[in-house]
Fold this protein.
Amino acid sequence: MVNLEQLKDLLERGDVAALARFLTDSYPSGLVGERDALVTLFMKAGLSHAEAVRWAKRIEEEGYAHHLPGASPRWVFTGKPVSFQELARLIESEWGSFIGSSSEAPEEAIEFIEKQLGLDRKTAAEVYRGLEAAGYASVVFQDAVDINRDRVLFEFPEVFLKQV
């Protein structure tokens, strides 16, 4: 359970980066729910509806909070700003030809995210965990002419791609 007093204190201080770190630590697999779930959380911490909406919009616009709609909708939080839309475009254009240094599929995907978005490893892992928890990433066996091993399959639902 999230510490609502600590959340309220962070909101009152207005430090978006500290708020993002707190939410990332509190919800490592994301805050399950539709778009209104983040507003509801902020209201539970004592904000008015209008303030909660403003904060949810701010943290999302600054790239620390990302709503992933679909079969398992959730808010994913990152300790540093990230563009999931840019990541989706990069996966579409470059993931198929990427061969990472690790033979472990999730590690290879984290390496891809890290390199392509210029992130540190921790933030790249936060992104991958969020994608996996939302059902956007899963490990599958790839049986092809040049590759026969486990590989991460990224699948972005149409509802997400409409946002891109």
